[in-house]
């Protein structure tokens, strides 16, 4: 029975104290849950304990709809925990925002078509019509919202309605060339993932490859981060780099950068989907 | 006869035009020079041609002391070339400036002791006494110049006298924790090599590992560059990076960074010693 | 006029002698060709000179259909050159062979759909029906040739007919899980590009991720090479690696490896398309 | 009081069962130990649980000389644990074996001189006199044991006496160009660390850089592993790689490889010193 393999995933953080791991593992073990994953980390500067634990639900004594309540009552309050509970058979729903460049979109949709990601992608939103054909290839609804200064607030309101209607849990900005307004960002805290085409915090803002070329760096990078109201300054999920030389033109950087961007973004999205990211203040704990 | 293996190394740049490679290779070939290295590059934006060529001197018809003059008269003026000529049997003389951290110093002196670098190191200069013992281990004179705001100008003047006396050609700042003043920088244009413990232009200035930790980056780096009067902004010679995680403390970054710093600095110094660097405007051409 | 930008690309190798660069650049310059690319390399052990040169054809005095003949008569014979001439406006025609895994296929077709590669892909050939849907998404004819020991010779003969009919210049094995027979390999010398899912020469043959897991390596790799009659032993075009830990299962290796494989294969194919690869004996010169 | 910071480090593995983490953390917490590190891992294929835990001893209720006994009685037998206990104030004693190449030796001694490693290095052993001068620079006794086929057994016997006399806990082969005989290997199980100058399992045995050059690989590597009786086949501690090109000669590979070798070896030795390695069968668990 495939259902037997369903798991619960618990992510939590709280002030560090002795006995938390024991308490949480006891809770699961006593109730006949088989732990299949445990990773924890203590930030000794902030004195915060972080944990991710996953267990099989097949023989678990607590009905799944009551786990959250029980855990809250029995442990979370006592330890002042901030926690979230997920079930492996509930797929998060992800919207992709794009503009004109297709490489990140293709990379994610190829994984999706291949069943690699435990996610639903109910829609793609764009401010340009260029990538309609990509959405069509994969049979995913494509919504066009052209944006000007004047129409931005109005268009974003419509986008948010659409996202709500499609029960979207998180948003991926796949080289979406528009700054998201504060209102939308605040509606999806640590749930909007961006890819920035530089090794942040170097080259914040527009045209980072041009800036990298001008500076004469020997390595370029890409950074995936959660979007906050400060531009390119949110918690970083993943970064990677590639070596360049003086022979590389700006166009070469753009092309080498594309492969970086798509891989870095997809790794970040995958970690998010697997519930392996815990953002705390302006940093992330990435569980293994 | 070992002398047969002596080579001349010519580095040049000039406005790009047809026929430069032919002209230069003809000059060498006609005069019975055996070319053992040729690398060239055209910057199509600036329209500048860069070249490094090396040939064996054993049968070369032009006496070595006249090569520069002949080349200048016959070619350099015609093509508006900026060129430099070096001989493999003339070792450049390098001074090392240090403060308290030994890792870069040890790494360079180990290579020197092992005969890996075609260089002379007549002296080490420091603003702190801490690394005298390292200099002593390798038998290299160590000069102490403590520096305060008040004594800086005076001490640097003495340092420059000492450098002149030792016929120093270039300076390596091996985690030297003092900003070099403009006067000294201008005396050694593109001949002072620094190692900065970040992936520039991210985290310019003091305490980059602390800044990297605060920002929550997933990769840290090190950058070796020529020193110019603008802090950490000179032409970059070499960069490299290493992956970190949320588990790494500032101390971990410092420790992981040490290996990066020493390798990046040594690679940069080696390229400089081998005459494989051509700085142009604020960037470098690094020949292969 | 876009036609003005058309270029000729000449790749050659020959015994090293003085004067070859001069001769070749003179040939182009005298005939009013504007050189836009030159890279050369001397293998001092084999004493072979390798060169890639590219020039604009707009004002070139020799008609393009006669360049090969002239160059052969004037230079190639004198210097015992082995050379090939390509024109930028003649797109090479590439066939993709697949089996069941889609990641490499998707990656290449995404680049193709996006116009990143100067290539034609007239057909996809497979021994399994699984990836028909990918070919359909991109509108590329998909031909199914199931292969058993008994039918192999016969099916490959049909494949070769089809390749000839479509004027295919080179073949990419995108995780094609069949050994190509000698006859087909010899028909496409250094024109069949494979991706092997290990850091060759480690883990030749089947199931390299399982072997890597068993051996307990800390890094896995992927290798793209030209196919020769010896399994996984042909000239290597490109390799890359990714770090793993003891926590990674075989499935994790397979998943991490997918991203490696697709990027390594695509880089290799791109170099081949750009005519930047010169295979010599069992190695490759990759021009910058 | 600095003594307060002393810690105990417990490494263990046993068949995986529910409740082990609870049991171990309870043992420490109940006895007033402050846990400063915990990392664990389950090998679900072998069904083995691995753990490293570290706690401060200042208020620990069990006297340090009795911890091992208590833990064994109370937990280890019950859970069939294989465990080792270390104290942070007991420095392991390390012997270095060298032959003629100095780069790895210099790198380790620089760290040692700088106080970076919590280790004692009472002696250096060599089969060649070449590196006496390096040992002298750092004031470490250097013992010369020339080895021929005929004298090997006898010389190794003397070496082992010397190692015993100096209470050596583990041995580092820093480019020691002699195969260690079975007898010595069995006396130091998983306590002889070697650096092999290739990306194992590629290029086992002698002259790996020559083999890499012949094969035309695009990346070279280095591997640090525990020595077992099968050549270059023991549990791998650390690997790293560097990119090369067709332009690199064998000498270039040797030089680029040196930096790799010393960094890879030093990382491996550091992990070993920090008690972060647990070898199991032919693989290692490397704690974070």
From TrEMBL, chains A, B, C, D:
It catalyses: (6R)-10-formyltetrahydrofolate + H2O = (6S)-5,6,7,8-tetrahydrofolate + formate + H(+). InterPro entries: ACT-like_dom_sf, ACT_dom, Formyl-FH4-Hydrolase_C, Formyl_transf_N, Formyl_transf_N_sf, PurU, PurU_ACT. Pfam families: ACT (PF01842), Formyl_trans_N (PF00551). CDD domains: ACT_F4HF-DF (cd04875), FMT_core_Formyl-FH4-Hydrolase_C (cd08648). The active site is at 232. It is an enzyme of class 3 (hydrolase). Its EC number is 3.5.1.10. Keywords: Hydrolase, One-carbon metabolism, Purine biosynthesis. Pathway: Purine metabolism; IMP biosynthesis via de novo pathway; formate from 10-formyl-5,6,7,8-tetrahydrofolate: step 1/1. One of its GO terms (molecular function) is formyltetrahydrofolate deformylase activity. HAMAP family: PurU (MF_01927). Belongs to the PurU family. This is Formyltetrahydrofolate deformylase.
